[in-house]
Amino acid sequence: MRTPLIRSSAALVAAAALTLPVAPALAAPTPSPGAATVTKAGTSFLTATSITAGQPVRVGASTSDYLYWSFPASAGQIHDIAATVTFPKGRTGDSTWTVEVFDGLRRRQACTAGAQTPTAGASATSVALGCTLRRVRSWAEPWSADPLPGTYYVRLSVVELPEPDLGLPVDVDLLVAEVGDGDAPADDGELKAPLVPNTKAGTVLTGDPAAAPADEEDDGSLLTGWLPDLSSRWVWTAVGGVLAAVAGVVGFALTRRPRRP
Questions:
Q1: Over the stretch 114-123, which tens digit does the pLDDT of each residue have?
Q2: Is residue 250 helix, strand or coil?
Q3: Distance in angstroms (rounded) separating the CA atoms of residues 160 and 153
Q4: 186 within some domain
Q5: Does 73 map to a domain?
Q6: Region Disordered: what ranges (predicted)?
Q7: 113 lies in a domain?
């Protein structure tokens, strides 16, 4: 009695598997036609090398380097980061690599697919890494970490390897591809400005800084302009100096010997 029941259950499972829709697999990203290959990488967020979607990257580095790239992202886009690290011969053990993505506020973004932290065996000649980002939204709550339009950073590094393998040369191939169709659902809002970090703070004066405004009256600044601005730091410094002088005088008076007649 059990054999027909098992066969009928297997047939139902097979029929259900045939009727279920199969999710299409993401194709491997390919470079854009005519895109120039980038041959350098930054070593920090401030020195990250700017790239665009579809632009291939190929650089030579060492196993102890932190490699940074940056790329722009707009609302509705989905980006796929694919990287390959090629090793030389003569490694002594396994190594674990990681690819991380940060937004313009330096918040780490989650990956929905891809081998983000794979481990390469001692005999492996290369290791493949990947990270598929979530769809970039046009608006989000300030407390959330949802991806927003702006600049994104990719960091590639090794997180674990034998000490004798530090400094070995490697070849890194990286490609950021746009896999989204750009049709983002309505978010009932719009970001005021893209999340782009201000790496050059300050304003540039377009006029002559030596020329004083016409409506500025002479209030005696020629006499007091050479004095430093009075702030709490200067006040406490002066008070500390006075207290130190008083303590010195009192200490001298207490420790000096009286004169003999």
A1: 999 999 999 9
A2: helix
A3: 22
A4: no
A5: yes
A6: 185-219
A7: yes
Cβ neighbors of 103 (< 8 A, separation 6 or more) are 109, 147, 148, 150, 151, 152, 153, 195
3 state SS of 228: coil
Helix (H) or strand (E) holding 238, with range, is helix 232-255
For 151, the domain range is 38-178
Q: Is residue 125 part of a domain?
A: yes
Closest CA relative to residue 99, chosen from 14, 156, 181, 17: 156
From 69, 27, 34, select the one nearest 178 (Cα to Cα). 27
* Dist. CA 42–CA 83, nearest whole Å: 16
pLDDT 10s digits, 193-217 = 666 766 665 666 566 555 544 444 4
- Number of domains the chain contains: 1
Specify the CATH number for the domain of residue 167.
2.60.120
3-class SS at 151? strand
Taking the C-alpha atoms of residue 44 and residue 225, their distance in angstroms, rounded to an integer, is: 41
Pairing mode of beta strands 150-160, 67-73 = antiparallel
> In Å, how far are 45, 51, 110, 206, 240 from 152, measured between CA atoms?
10, 10, 12, 31, 49
